[in-house]
């Protein structure tokens, strides 16, 4: 049987298994148009997603940069999902997928020069007010990456960790996550408008994600592999690289870019969402660490310094 005949037979087998008529699908091919790059990538739709709110040219840089970030976040979540839903992943597979995820964050880290050096401060200080009260804090995908990476206890505000464990209701845990402090009045606990809107839009998705990845987050998957493999130097290096990249390198890149534009050399700038952005963003204050067991006491004590 020729290669062509084999392919036709496999196609026929495929549609019979689906209780479909192969002839109907083949006839449909007669009238279908060949795919093009712009149709496959949806280029026209993608390039029309940039809608400025001002006439300042550099606002377009700001919009596109953050849209690229969200696409990379989506890629990261896609890779985590594949790893988390793989039963008994091998050490090689675990390491390879983790490095894929890390490379996406490496790309995010090095890309801060695009925003840090690619916009005029004067323009940013004008168009930023059109963003109020929106904030990068409101990236839901970034929050989901955190939920998918580590146990919830590692994302809880340090002030409340002693009162929360794995039996704590998800909604209660959500109220005590480290980033809640950035959206609440420290004295009264009153939530800001941008935090209320954020939760109004994403609270159900967050609770679902927290529950879904409670036992299959990256740390839990790491603990599933044989104990001897958990000591594999390459895998440990990959885990540490990911942890450090997400929670120190990327965060500091973001912080330094914010300092340039928000502070503008005065030290008293306010974020568009109104958060205490220095303490919210700096890793030494939040001390979010995905895999604390993989770091020494000294490394933990000086995290982010």
Highlighted features:
305 residues, mainly alpha, 60% helix
Average pLDDT: 90
Care to count the β-strands?
0
Unreliable residue stretches = none
Radius of gyration: 23 Å
Helix content: 55-70%
What is the first-to-last residue Cα distance? 68 Å
Broad shape: globular
Query: β content, as a range?
Result: under 5%
Instruction: Give the topology string: H per helix, E per strand.
Output: HHHHHHHHHHHHHHHH
Counting H and I runs of at least 4 residues, what is the number of helices? 16
Topology (elements, then pairings):
Layout: H1 3-17, H2 22-31, H3 37-41, H4 43-47, H5 58-84, H6 91-110, H7 112-116, H8 121-127, H9 140-149, H10 170-175, H11 193-212, H12 218-224, H13 233-263, H14 277-281, H15 283-286, H16 297-301
Helix pairs in contact: 5-6, 5-9, 6-13, 9-11
Written overview of the protein:
The chain has 305 residues and is mainly α. Helix 5 packs antiparallel against helix 6 (91-110), helix 5 runs parallel beside helix 9 (140-149) and helix 6 packs parallel to helix 13 (233-263). It is built from 16 helices and no strands.
Question: What is the structure about, briefly put?
Answer:
The protein is built from 16 helices and no strands. It has helices at residues 3-17, 22-31, 37-41, 43-47, 58-84, 91-110, 112-116, 121-127, 140-149, 170-175, 193-212, 218-224, 233-263, 277-281, 283-286, 297-301.
């Amino acid at each position: 049987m020729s290669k062509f005949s084999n392919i036709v037979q496999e196609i026929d087998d495929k549609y019979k298994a689906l209780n479909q008529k192969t002839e109907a699908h083949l006839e449909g091919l007669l009238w279908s148009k060949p795919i093009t790059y712009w149709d496959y990538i949806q280029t026209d739709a993608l390039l029309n997603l940039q809608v400025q709110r001002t006439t300042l040219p550099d606002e377009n840089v700001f919009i596109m940069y953050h849209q690229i970030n969200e696409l990379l976040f989506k890629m990261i979540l896609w890779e985590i999902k594949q790893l988390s839903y793989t039963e008994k992943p091998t050490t090689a597979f675990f390491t390879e997928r983790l490095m894929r995820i890390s490379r996406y964050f490496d790309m995010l880290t090095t890309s801060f020069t695009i925003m840090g050096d690619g916009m005029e401060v004067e323009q940013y200080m004008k168009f930023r007010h059109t963003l109020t009260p929106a904030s990068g804090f409101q990236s839901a995908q970034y929050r989901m990456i955190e939920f998918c990476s580590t146990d919830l206890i590692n994302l809880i505000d340090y002030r409340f960790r002693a009162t929360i464990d794995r039996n704590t209701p998800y909604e209660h845990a959500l109220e005590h996550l480290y980033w809640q402090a950035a959206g609440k009045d420290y004295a009264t606990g009153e939530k800001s408008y941008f935090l209320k809107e954020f939760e109004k839009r994403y609270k159900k998705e967050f609770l679902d994600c927290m529950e879904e990845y409670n036992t299959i987050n990256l740390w839990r998957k790491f603990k599933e592999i044989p104990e001897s493999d958990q000591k594999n130097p390459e895998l440990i290096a990959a885990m540490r690289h990911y942890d450090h990249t997400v929670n120190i390198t990327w965060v500091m890149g973001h912080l330094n870019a914010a300092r340039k534009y928000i502070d503008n050399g005065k030290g008293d700038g306010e974020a568009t969402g109104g958060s205490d952005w220095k303490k919210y963003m700096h890793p030494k204050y939040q001390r979010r660490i995905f895999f604390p067991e993989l770091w020494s006491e000294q490394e933990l004590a000086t995290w982010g310094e």
